[in-house]
Write a structure and sequence with these properties.
Bound molecules: copper (II) ion
Number of domains: 2
Number of helices: 2
Helix content: 10-25%
Oligomer: single chain
Shape: globular
Number of strands: 10
CATH architecture of the largest domain: Sandwich
Strand order of the largest sheet: 1-10-4-9-8-6
Distance between the termini: 32 Å
Strand content: 25-35%
Order of helices and strands: HEHEEEEEEEEE
CATH topology of the largest domain: Immunoglobulin-like
Length: about 200
Amino acid sequence: MKIVMPNSAKAVSAQRGGVGSWARLLIVVWGAALSGCSAGAAQLSTPTPIATVAAIPLPAAQTSQWLSFDAATKTVSLSMLAGRPDANNGYNFNGYSSGSLVISVPKGWRITAQCKVDPLSGAHSCSVVRGPDTAQPAFPGSTLPDPTGSGFVTAGDTKTFTFTADAPMVGRFACLLTGHQAAGMWATFQVTDSGQPSIGTTS
Ligand SMILES: [Cu+2]
């Protein structure tokens, strides 16, 4: 499985200018064509362990409200309440915004996510994505259908989706309705190499 890094290293660094710089550049490009490119490609394809987000575990009583799991079957149940009116102008999950709530699930586990919308809220949607600039689900099925459009959940309702987190990543549990994620309506969702499912906060 290919891991997309947020900032990939540039294969060729900028050359200094000055007299003779064109000649040097030509040699550099020619040399890269002969050998440098294949060496660079080999480096980029080497798997790099991802840096997961550190989180302080929530108290057990709070965790059990939102996350439960069965280690024998490697299944996780996640309950996300969207749009609590008393935090971040309603743009939150479980009262947290802008990644401060951290959900961690080991790779290979199967997650059932409940997307509940607060009875006093407007509509919201739920998706697990790899970053802020995509509406593509991070894993097959890791979203409500049509999360930017008709897939929204109205006040007081719940919709559910189930998926398998089959590779490590650090991504987001986000509401993809226009403007909501930008307003802070996302939690950190990460898939770890090992361990147990957990839910915590960054502060
Ligand atoms: Cu929303």
